[in-house]
């Protein structure tokens, strides 16, 4: 299997032993690691955090010569499911047509104590 590590300085650097994204060159599939709003959005403002997370994902997609229309699956992890509507409001602005498959899961804690983390799978 041939794979390509995708990295951009327009999104937070990994905080552990993982890549921002990995592209499987034979299939054109891109696996984007969970993105959070590290130091780039005020924590506690769920809309600002979600918007920054989506901007991070957009930067990684761009580094892989893709965009939001290439996303086929997303996973959203939230600290408080009461923020579901606010997250959806922001998230939805990035998918005007044919949104990807998705799940949203409430978790006890996220890295850096953020409130939302989103990972995606995209296909070229």
Structure description:
The protein is 22% helix and 30% strand. By secondary structure, the protein is α+β, with helices and mostly antiparallel strands. The protein has one domain: RutC-like (60s Ribosomal Protein L30, Chain: A, 2-Layer Sandwich), CATH 3.30.1330.40. Strand 4 (71-78), helix 2 and strand 5 form a beta-alpha-beta unit. Helix 1 (46-63) packs parallel to helix 2 (84-92). The longest helix is centred in the middle third of the chain and has 18 residues, at 46-63. It is globular and about 40 Å long. The two termini are 17 Å apart. The mean pLDDT is 95.
Describe how the helices and strands are arranged.
Layout: E1 3-6, E2 21-24, E3 29-35, H1 46-63, E4 71-78, H2 84-92, E5 101-106, E6 116-123
Parallel strand pairs: 4-5
Antiparallel strand pairs: 1-2, 2-3, 3-6, 4-6
Helix pairs in contact: 1-2
Pfam family, one: Ribonuc_L-PSP
Protein name: 2-iminobutanoate/2-iminopropanoate deaminase
Organism: Spirosoma utsteinense
Rg over C-alpha atoms, rounded to the nearest angstrom: 14 Å
Please, what is the average pLDDT?
A: 95
Approximate shape: globular
CATH architecture descriptor name: 2-Layer Sandwich
Helix coverage percent of residues? 10-25%
Structural category is alpha+beta
Query: Any low-confidence stretches, pLDDT <50, length ≥5?
Result: none
Beta-strand content: 25-35%
The span between the termini is: 17 Å
Element string (H = helix, E = strand): EEEHEHEE
What is the CATH superfamily label? Answer: RutC-like
């Amino acid at each position: 299997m041939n794979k390509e590590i995708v990295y951009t300085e327009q999104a937070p650097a990994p905080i552990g032993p993982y890549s921002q994204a990995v592209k499987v060159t034979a299939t054109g599939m891109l696996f984007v690691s969970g993105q959070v709003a590290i130091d780039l959005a005020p924590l506690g403002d769920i809309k600002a955090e979600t918007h920054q997370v989506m901007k991070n994902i957009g930067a990684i997609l761009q580094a892989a010569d893709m965009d939001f229309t290439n996303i086929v699956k997303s996973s959203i992890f939230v600290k408080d499911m009461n923020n579901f509507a606010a997250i959806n409001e922001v998230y939805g602005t990035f998918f005007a047509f044919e949104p990807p498959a998705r799940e949203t899961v409430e978790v006890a804690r996220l890295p850096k104590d953020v409130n939302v983390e989103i990972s995606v799978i995209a296909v070229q």
